[in-house]
Amino acid sequence: MKITVADVEHVARLARLELSSGEKELFAGQMGAILGYAEKLKELNTDGIVPTSHAVPMENAFRADAVQPSIGLEKALANAPERAGSFFAVPKVIE
Fold this sequence. Notes:
Layout: H1 5-14, H2 21-41, H3 73-76, E1 83-84, E2 87-88
Antiparallel strand pairs: 1-2
Helix pairs in contact: 1-2
């Protein structure tokens, strides 16, 4: 797919970028090369390959869910810089 300077100008306008004419030409070539490489990848025979396959075996690293007692209010707030009753006290960030 050929990327034109007009395509680059359109994308730059959407991204609110101001580009020089040299940058527009440069990016048109670079974007065209990227899309050309993506087109080349379409030539690969992927029949029989599962879309989520990996080169090495993968395992889920998550632990099983288990019900456990909570740490409790006092322990949770023990290192709080400031407390407001049973809550963390934080500075106001919205006027």
